[in-house]
Specification:
Helix content: 55-70%
Largest sheet: none
Structural class: mainly alpha
Distance between the termini: 82 Å
Length: 147
């Protein structure tokens, strides 16, 4: 009974504020305020407020919320473990089988973006610049990128 009265008073006050806002020619804001102020009145009229009041003082309802919380925690824990392991057992088994199928032969060439193990066509000792500048660090970077 008290909750319904409070919600009705909040709705009436919100509609009053919306009327003052509309009087100040701020119609969009007034409409938004009116919409928010009608929510508590709608909740009272549909019976949600009474249901919430009955639920708030029911030990069975609180036990049910506790069971739902435990259930949610179990789901979250299993999901975190599943992500850490890399999927479900079936997905891991399929990934291992695919890895065995797609295995690279031992004599295959090195990947194009891998660590530069391929031999360069340039001579091993590049001639130094005549002006005495040292370009060895630049050469190392270029070799690293395969240039």
């Amino acid at each position: 009974m008290i909750a319904e009265t409070v919600c009705s008073a909040v709705a009436a006050a919100g509609l009053g504020i919306a009327a003052v806002t509309a009087y100040r020619k701020r119609f969009l804001a007034a409409t938004r305020i009116a919409a928010y102020s009608l929510v508590p009145l709608g909740l009272v009229m549909t019976g949600v407020v009474e249901w919430l009041a009955d639920t708030a003082f029911s030990p069975t309802a609180w036990a049910g919320f506790g069971v739902l919380g435990v259930s949610w925690m179990l789901f979250a824990t299993t999901r975190a473990v599943e992500r850490r392991r890399g999927g479900t057992r079936k997905e891991r088994k399929e990934a291992r089988a695919a890895a065995r199928r797609d295995a690279v032969a031992p004599t295959a060439s090195a990947p194009s973006l891998g660590a530069g193990s391929r031999q360069s066509t340039r001579p091993a000792t590049a001639p130094k610049a005549e002006s005495g500048e040292d370009f060895s660090d630049i050469e190392a970077i270029l070799k690293k990128h395969g240039i």
